[in-house]
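Field log, afternoon session.

UNIT: design team B
ACTIVITY: writing a sequence onto a fixed backbone
BACKBONE:
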């Protein structure tokens, strides 16, 4: 009987250790960022490469397309039933593309993890 309980606990432990990934937004591909050229890349090309932005800000005759992608990796146990958010790792990636007359004038890419 003890062997069965031990085997059950052992297999539950093996089957239960996993990571649950929660995402928000569209993932920003670093290779596509390298394709952005200030003074050359158009608004249509940015939208084609990155899709619909998270936010759009217009000020001083400039349009800023803001893309934000958030990812959280949380350890889970027993088939994902128990999540340990304390040990979770969060990362935020953002891309801000500034357009003037529908041409990229500048862009900024940031990535952080904690």
């Amino acid at each position: 009987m003890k062997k069965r309980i031990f085997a059950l606990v052992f297999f539950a432990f093996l089957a239960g250790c996993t990571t649950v990934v929660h995402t928000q937004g569209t993932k920003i591909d670093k290779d596509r960022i390298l394709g952005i050229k200030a003074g050359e890349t158009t608004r249509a090309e940015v939208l084609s490469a990155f899709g619909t932005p998270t936010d759009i800000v217009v000020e001083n005759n400039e349009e800023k397309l803001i893309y934000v992608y958030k990812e959280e990796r949380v350890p889970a146990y027993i088939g994902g039933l128990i999540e340990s958010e304390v040990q979770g790792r969060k990362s935020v990636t953002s891309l801000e593309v500034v357009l003037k007359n529908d041409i990229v004038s500048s862009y900024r890419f940031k990535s952080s993890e904690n």
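LOG NOTE: Helices lie at 2-16, 30-33, 43-50.
NEXT ACTIVITY: expression trials, pending approval
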